[in-house]
TrEMBL record:
<feature type="coiled-coil region">
    <location>
        <begin position="254"/>
        <end position="281"/>
    </location>
</feature>
<dbReference type="InterPro" id="IPR001810">
    <property type="entry name" value="F-box_dom"/>
</dbReference>
<dbReference type="GO" id="GO:0000209">
    <property type="term" value="P:protein polyubiquitination"/>
</dbReference>
<feature type="domain" description="F-box">
    <location>
        <begin position="1"/>
        <end position="48"/>
    </location>
</feature>
<keyword id="KW-0175">Coiled coil</keyword>
<protein>
    <submittedName>
        <fullName>GM24866</fullName>
    </submittedName>
</protein>
<dbReference type="InterPro" id="IPR039719">
    <property type="entry name" value="FBXO28"/>
</dbReference>
Length: 307
């Protein structure tokens, strides 16, 4: 029995047991695996968004409302890690969601989903203080590489294919409009029958000869107007493309700035905690130093003379 002879639901259940990275690799097997893998990856991305929101809500409910107490809480670093994950999810959504909604592609980097799942699992099971830089280092690296590779290698091909399809559809529509048969439709919109009616061919030829220069001038004006419209549309499309490119560059810079801001806030919070720990341990050290200094400054004991 062949594996592909099984029902699709059973194959999908088998693939869902694998990590998302393996599902993304198994898409190369055949068209059925590609179709099922795309569905699993898209569902996995939505599941991770919901799981992150659920964990963030749970951690926020456990933290105190005051900022000073929140910084000293045990779960404060959990909140910082979840905030950094939120920025990464927003960057991935901005990169892939447009193409996923248009059914052009699926969420490709399954390894990113596995990494986010492992981090969320750590946050849900451990209550000790974590180091955000160590926990998030792998996620930052692979998510940044995935976004850059998609923007530079994959999205460009999708846009070119989409433009070709639009050009073909517009050309086909123009051909349909030109070739549409309207000879059997009257001006009232009622379809005419094929009854032959007597026609005065001499009058028709005279009318055609009289209208020939008018039609030629009209066709020339129509062609010039179409050329102007074409040039205008071309210039507008070029401007729109430039605006799209600049907007994408600005969005990428904004996301990089947001990620750097979140990283800096986590580092600042860690430094604040370390400073507070140092300040808390300062009085005991000062007392010990004062005691040692006072003992060193005592005058030497005078020896009694021997009798």
């Amino acid at each position: 029995m062949n594996l592909l002879d099984l029902p699709q639901t059973l194959i999908q259940d088998i693939l869902e047991l694998l990590p998302y990275d393996e599902v993304a690799k198994k898409r190369e097997v055949c068209t059925l695996f590609n179709y099922l893998g795309q569905q699993i990856l898209n569902k996995g991305f939505n599941k991770i968004i919901m799981a992150h929101a659920k964990n963030f809500k749970r951690i926020k409910s456990m933290l105190p409302r005051r900022e000073s107490e929140r910084r000293n809480h045990i779960l404060s670093r959990h909140s910082d890690i979840l905030t950094s994950i939120e920025t990464r999810i927003s960057m991935l959504t901005m990169t892939y969601s447009k193409f996923i909604d248009l059914n052009i592609c699926c969420f490709i980097p399954g390894r990113v989903l596995d990494e986010i799942n492992s981090i969320l699992r750590i946050l849900s099971t451990s209550t000790k203080q974590l180091r955000p830089h160590e926990v998030l280092q792998e996620l930052r690296d692979i998510s940044s590489m995935a976004i850059e590779h998609f923007d530079e290698k994959i999205a460009v091909n999708f846009k070119m294919e989409h433009r070709k399809q639009l050009a073909e559809s517009t050309a086909a529509g123009a051909r349909l409009v030109v070739c549409s048969a309207l000879g059997d439709i009257s001006f009232s919109g009622v379809r005419r029958t094929g009854i032959s009616r007597p026609v005065d061919h001499g009058l028709v030829q005279q009318a055609i000869v009289q209208l020939a220069p008018i039609s030629a001038s009209k066709s020339h004006s129509d062609s010039s107007q179409k050329d102007r419209q074409y040039q205008l549309q071309r210039s507008l499309s070029q401007k729109i493309r430039l605006l799209e490119v600049s907007r994408k560059v600005q969005d990428r810079r904004l996301q990089e700035a947001l990620s750097s801001i979140t990283e800096l806030t986590t580092q600042v919070s860690e430094l604040k905690r370390q400073m507070e720990d140092v300040v808390a341990n300062m009085p005991s050290c000062a007392v010990k130093r004062q005691a040692v200094a006072s003992a060193d400054c005592l005058p030497p004991a005078q020896k009694k003379p021997k009798v």
